[in-house]
Specification:
elongated; 8 helices; mainly alpha
Amino acid sequence: LEQLLIFIYADKTAPGDIVVNLASSLLTAADKYNIQRLKNICEQAICENIEVANAAEALVLAYLHEAKNLKTVAIDFVTSNMAKVTETTGWQVITESHPKIMSEILAAVTARINEE
């Protein structure tokens, strides 16, 4: 909340910029309050720090908050690291609760196979 208020009133992030573990919460708040510039900053921070452990969560976050750049980066990362990502708890959430994401991942994997 403090980071959100700093951004709203000062139009900048606090010293140390946006840390990754805070970026998803800030992205959610920025989307809720329609603060597009902060949403873009958070989206970029998440994109730059995507890894196997957080890729599935990043993908869900992208879908829930219509973060197009994050969605593209996350889908590319997931399809490139499918075997490892499917072992995470975040992936289990996708398979159980997000059929639309699953169908898009399947389409991306199919496209990747057809390119090879």
